[in-house]
């Protein structure tokens, strides 16, 4: 096979749609309730903060006394020694109260991060299937990760850095006003005002660079995760270089935003340093003049110099902290936007649990559309009496799987209603509804854990013996027993280490272990070879004997003994009845049956193909591949459907 060039493949269009900003104050208001629960700890931490700063400001005052005492020839040696002891105690107190503050507040920060992370996780699971079908997993996980880190940054920097600096500025300003000439405070105030104005203005301008970096980082991560999850597809089509180009296209744009961010940071740092340097020089000039004029002592000069160092060094760091906090705000915006995402399907207030007596299911005049301009189901009405099996067949896109999604209440019906034992699904708790239903899906996706974990997922807390019994009924126990690690064998991401048939048997075992009142078989044996299918079909019939069962089928030979068969076409029930009755009616079902039988006979003698492997084609009970059901536009089906509708 010749090597294909990917140069002609167009790069995807850039998503330039504007994003709604959550707002910094709104972000802070969202965060405050998590801190308010620990208001006692916060109060103690704030008290420690004030004590630490009082001790820190006291150090230069004691230093002035020490210097002035040494300057007096008649001073007793005991005076400097006593002051030195006080000086040492103040230094120790500064460190002691600072560490005590961090010790008290550590639990507040980590607990807030944990609670918000857990709330986001639960909220994501509460969102509708519609949201998750449209999500981008890589970007979503990166948004959550950055948002949690941003919360920790915001809380820590605000309490441990910003607030202490503001307290210290207030204390130093008060001392300068009380002890010295007004010019000292004037220079300090003007410098502070210029510094804060310059820092805030430039940082606000820079913030959109960080926001852009976040958008591009999430997009790049989404593309990388999506490509890795579809590794085999990439290999099938030889598109490794194409995927690398798509990834690099996002990285290039992220790189440009990062360079602009770093360049603007350098300009900010230079401006801040210039303001501080000029202010310190003017303060020291005024202090020197005061000493020369005899209005100030050498100790005063030392005091003013120490104050300026204490004030401007953290103030310089305050600029860095403000930038970090603004970046944390940008990171938290997307996290709290997820929290604010409204759940489409919710329990009504005071909804009672579902109570099943026989688990009879009824669809009454159900209409449904995923999108307003694309209706899927039209006036669908049918019943599944308690303990009965109703099968649904029809061409692709006719709405078969939609019935299962509506029964699980992944979506609400557009009109009509769905009842279980006379209870409308919209009036009962979703958790109890889904606890009553078990499903074996056609496309089984497993967790990246052991086989035992994936089977036990049907009923967490089940014993090992119960798991093994379910595996026996699903005809997978012998296979698992032959594996070196047995039930502890990891299945890989999405179960990719197992074949399609093996994954489907795990899904069957999981449904068996759940012991639900209602069972949904959505092509439950489509990935199995004929021998395994025949063995499992008998077990499935035994399991479903006393349960209400909805079977979604492609291979008609698997549902010939259903109590009733529904034929869907374009979202409408065009035929219903038993297998024998539908064949006798010679309508849509009879034509599909003959088509599959003709296809089987036409392939007879070609040998039984293995269909248990990953991605293998479905096989009929005789081991031969089944054809796709005729689509909605197929002439025989359309003609038969027209006949049924006109009857």
List the helices and strands and how they pair.
Layout: H1 24-36, H2 39-71, H3 78-126, H4 129-134, H5 137-179, H6 182-229, H7 231-236, H8 240-292, H9 298-339, E1 361-371, E2 374-384, E3 389-393, H10 400-407, E4 415-420, E5 423-424, H11 430-435, E6 437-440, H12 451-456, H13 464-473, H14 477-482, H15 500-514, E7 518-522, H16 530-544, E8 548-552, E9 564-569, E10 572-577, H17 579-585, H18 588-603, H19 635-646
Parallel strand pairs: 3-8, 3-9, 6-7, 7-8
Antiparallel strand pairs: 1-2, 1-4, 4-5, 9-10
Question: How helix-rich are the residues, as a percent range?
Answer: 55-70%
**End-to-end gap:** 55 Å
> Could you say what the CATH architecture of the largest domain is?
Up-down Bundle
Number of E-state strands: 10
- Give the class from helix and strand content and strand pairing: alpha/beta
Q: Can you identify the CATH class of the largest domain?
A: Mainly Alpha
Strand content: 5-15%
Q: What's the main sheet like?
A: 6 strands, mixed
Radius of gyration: 36 Å
CATH topology of the largest domain: ABC transporter transmembrane region fold
User: Overall mean pLDDT score?
Assistant: 75
Give the overall form: elongated
